[in-house]
Amino acid sequence: MSLEPPRARDAEATKARLLQAATDEFAAYGIAGARVDRIGAAAKANKALIYTYFGSKEQLFDAVMDTHVARVLDQVPFTPEDLPGYAGRLFDFLLANPHQLRLATWHRLERSGTGHEPDGLRDSMGRKTDAIAAAQADGQVTAAFTPEDLLAFTLALTNAWMPTSPVAATGQDTRRHRAAVVEAVRRLVT
C-alpha cells in the first residue's frame, strides 16, 4: 500500500470549473432555478467552494456574466463605420455561443434593479455610441437616427434569429438569416 502525498488544490482551476458548470446551469435554469449542488457536482468540486470563491449564488452568476460580457467584447470587434459587418460578426458569435443570450436574458429577468451591471458593459455601450456619433459626423453612417437608436436596432436585428428568439425555428437556414440581418442593418445605416 503506497501512501501518496495529498494533492495540492489548484484554486484557479477549480474556479474555472465552477464558472463553466455555473454557465451551463444558469443558462438552463436562471438564478432562481439553478442549484449549487448541481454546479458543484458538474465542476467536481465541493459546493462550499462556491461560497468561498464567489460569496453567493447571485455573485457567482455575476461572475459568469462578467466573464461572458468580457468575452463578447474581446472577440467581436466593433466597427461603427461598418455596422452591417459588426452585425454579421456578432450573429456568428452568438450562434456559436448560445449561452450568451440566455445568460443576458436571465440577467435582465432576475438581476435588473439589483445594482449589478456586468463589468465593462456600460463603458462599452458608451464607447460604441460615441463611435457611431463620430461616424455620423464624418458622413459614414446616417444621422437619421440617434447613435443609441442605431446601436439598439443593430443589436435587436442581430438577435432576431437566435435560438432564444420566439420567431426562430429549429432547422433554420442560418446563412440566409445572417445575410438578411446584415442587409437589414446596411439599409438601416445608409
UniProtKB/TrEMBL annotation:
Pfam families for this protein: TetR_C_21, TetR_N
A molecular function annotated in GO for this UniProt entry is:
DNA binding
Show the PROSITE patterns listed in the entry.
HTH_TETR_2
**Is DNA-binding included in the keywords of this UniProt record?**
yes
Tell me the ranges covered by the HTH tetR-type domain, including all copies: 12-72
- On the tree of life, the source organism's domain of life is Bacteria
Q: Which GO terms describe its biological process?
A: regulation of DNA-templated transcription
Q: Which Gene3D superfamilies match?
A: Tetracycline Repressor, domain 2 (1.10.357.10)
According to the entry, DNA is bound by residues in 35-54
Which keywords annotate this record?
A: DNA-binding
Q: What is this protein called?
A: DNA-binding transcriptional regulator, AcrR family
